[in-house]
Description:
The chain is α+β, with helices and mostly antiparallel strands. 30% of the residues lie in helices and 25% in strands. The protein contains 13 helices and 24 strands. The chain has helices at 2-21, 112-115, 130-136, 178-191, 213-218, 223-245, 247-264, 278-281, 286-292, 312-317, 320-336, 356-368, 393-406, and strands spanning 25-26, 35-37, 42-47, 53-58, 61-66, 71-76, 82-90, 94-110, 143-147, 165-167, 195-201, 302-306, 343-346, 372-375, 418-425, 428-434, 440-442, 450-453, 460-461, 463-467, 470-474, 483-486, 496-498, 507-508. The strands form 5 sheets. Strands 2, 4, 5, 7, 8, 9, 10, 11, 12, 13 and 14 form an 11-stranded mixed β-sheet that branches. It has a 4-stranded antiparallel β-sheet with strand order 15-16-21-20, with no helix packed on it. It is globular, with a radius of gyration of 26 Å. 43% of the residues are buried.
Amino acid sequence: MKNHNHYFSLFICTCFAITVNATVHPNIIFSDNMVLQRGVQVPIWGTANIGEKVSIEFAGQKYTTVAKEGKWLFTLKPLKAGGPFIMVIKGENTISISNILVGEVWLCSGQSNMEMLLGPMKGRITIENAKETIANAINYPTIREFTVARDASDVSLVEVKKGRWDVCDSVTVKSFSAVGYFFANALSQKLHVPIGLIHSSFGGTGAERWTSREMLESNTELKELVSKYEKSIVSFSERFQKYKENEAAIIEAWNQEVLLAKENKTALPKKPIAPVEPAKSGDCGGLFNAMIAPIIPYAIKGVIWYQGEHDSNKAKTSKEYQTLFPALISDWRSRWQQGDFPFLYVQIAPNEKNTPELREAQLLTLQRSPNTAMAVITDCVDPTFNIHSPIKKPVGDRLALAARALAYNEKIEYMGPIYQSMKIEGNSIRISFTHIGSGLLAKESDLIGFAIAGTDANFVPAKAIIEGNTVLVSAVDVINPTNVRFGFVNIPITNLYNKEGLPASPFRTDLP
């Protein structure tokens, strides 16, 4: 046993010595089991000694360069789907990267509903049908995921803190993003090529954290976010000290609020925490710096995005998200320099904290950002309207429908009905839609969720009837109608679909 320990220690020391002396270093995202994007030029980059000669061999392509300022970059010609392949990168040392596949690569990002794993997570509900899905995952080894570790930085980083590519099986899939996995699985079964996911999400985060500081500063409507951030840095020490001085009283007050909430059977208040140092919170571009910038310009097909809950209350009092979200999309596309790649996102689900104004901002983004699609999930909620719904398969499936249409040019309907226009007809208002597919459908009952108002702007429940590809809305007590709303509440309960089974987005015609 002593000899075994001796050889094991020698092996570890040898590996450490090789690592320390290694000069050629590919970016951490270029590692075993990775998936590269087919059909486009593929950048491969890393570091080496200044002036070091570096070469690469992959899938019949060979290139040589010299590291400038300690950096090197190769651009592979477009690749065909397939694999597994081996990539060899040589300098003063040799790096061999194995089990590489070529197929479709998608970036998955956002906050907690994208971050939710397929497997169990402490403090989170179990994903619907997780047990069966996990058992079947062994059949999809060509689905791979690179998970970016949570991190934040006040300056742009060149490499993520840590991450690795996992090959899908019934063990590793538990650590995959649930939405990401269902999306990849649906695509895999249609495209029959490898699917790579780059999962970079962080629960409880606002969109400004995922947008570069430069974009925020250059936008007249968003630069105030930077100003507030800079002020928070200056005031942090004072705020932290004040909290610590009053921490005992603050916690005691919270304990009393918890007791009262339990007596009244209402939601428990969040436990107070000390102020977080702004530079470490990821605010104002900090997550972009640490979790997005380091993986640019890795070749991708597009992005799937699930975020907005954190910004919901702000959307109710401000139109900031209407500007911020399209700015984020534009920012990422500009930095990747791959054109207007598909950006597919999820409209936030019904919840007492999720305001209709946030859903409206997401709806308006369809008009303001080209090559985008929105998955409506008003029917994918927990019966208790938990903000973290366990129903994730339809979410991934609907994002995959959008990908098939926008990224892969399939002639399919990929969204539910979207409000287009209104026309007053006597005591009724006729609503027209886009994305009606093969027709409109009231699921399981007469149409519900519509409200109508007259000149007094008092919205009342309305009768709604499907007539061809339109909906005629009226109410007995509204003689001179002016506007219609559909599902425009925190918890919309609606049943308008197209016949393809995709729900209509909430909307209001009285857009301010």
